Task: inverse folding
């Protein structure tokens, strides 16, 4: 299967990116708001939404978003690092849920997702990855087919929006 590059919009044109690329801003920045919405169309047209405070940094052109979802009565605490570069999106979780999921256009990636009481083989076939960076904000959209333990589950869409809280 031929790998397709993601669609980048506003990347080099972003004034915030130009300043960061020239090293004028610190490499680690906090005070960001993160919203992640995921829709599994076979289940519902309504997305499952996560919202959290996050940290954002750029290292060698790769963007890193990190955040922690605190424990509640149903779920233990989960730390997440999202890595976005010119060719892929990776979501790595640790804590109550452990594993990583890689998305790259035109390709399929498999990984193990450990839920503590159950381990799942997750495969996704990424159809589309769009990244928009403008004025210290980052938006990522990925559309993919989700398989769990080699069984097709649903067509999915995940949207990640990172905005400065300042």
Result:
């Amino acid at each position: 299967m031929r790998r397709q590059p993601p669609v980048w919009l506003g990347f080099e044109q972003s004034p915030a990116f130009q300043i960061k690329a020239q090293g004028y801003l610190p490499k680690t920045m906090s005070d960001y708001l993160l919203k992640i919405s995921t829709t599994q169309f076979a289940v519902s047209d309504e997305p499952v939404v996560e919202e959290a405070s996050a940290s954002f940094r750029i290292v060698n052109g790769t963007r890193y978003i990190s955040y922690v979802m605190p424990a509640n009565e149903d779920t233990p605490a989960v730390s997440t690092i999202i890595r976005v570069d010119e060719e892929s999106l990776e979501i790595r979780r640790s804590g109550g849920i452990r594993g990583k999921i890689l998305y790259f256009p035109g390709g399929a990636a498999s990984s193990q997702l450990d839920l503590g009481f159950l381990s799942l083989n997750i495969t996704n076939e990424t159809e589309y990855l769009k990244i928009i960076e403008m004025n210290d904000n980052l938006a990522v959209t990925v559309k993919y087919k989700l398989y769990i333990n080699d069984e097709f589950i649903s067509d999915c869409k995940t949207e990640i929006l990172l905005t400065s809280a300042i």
Observations:
- The chain has one domain: 7-164.
- The first helix runs from residue 15 to 21.
